[in-house]
Amino acid sequence: MINKEILIEDLVQEYPKLIGPLKIEGIVCLACGEALWGTLEAQAIEKGLTNIDDIVQRMNALILGQAL
Questions:
Q1: What is the per-residue pLDDT for 63?
Q2: Residue-range definition of the domain harbouring residue 16
Q3: Which of 7, 34, 43, 59 is the one with CA 20 to 30 A from 52?
Q4: Is the dihedral of CA 36, 39, 42, 48 positive or negative?
């Protein structure tokens, strides 16, 4: 399970299948090769997204194999 404080580096390593769905959500710079990306929440804010809790909920549903 993820939360909005998860580091992007950890998210990509632990849940690589979320890269595509997060790109659809608008968080597109996940595998661009930057050394440090910060937290999922920080990336969402940087991209102008305000629905981070909804994004986390949808990503956790994908991890659990549930559809929303």
A1: 94
A2: 8-63
A3: 34
A4: positive
Nearest partner of 19 among 45, 40, 50, 34, judged by Cα = 40
Q: What is the pLDDT of residue 31?
A: 58
In the chain, what is the straight-line distance between the N-terminal and C-terminal CA atoms, in Å?
Answer: 16
Residue 12 forms part of a structural domain: yes
DSSP type of residue 25: H
- Closest by CA to 48, choosing from 28, 26, 20, is 26
Query: Measuring CA to CA, which residue among 17, 19, 66, 62 is closest to residue 43?
Result: 19
Q: What is the pTM of this model?
A: 0.83
- Whether the pLDDT of residue 3 is over 90: the answer is yes
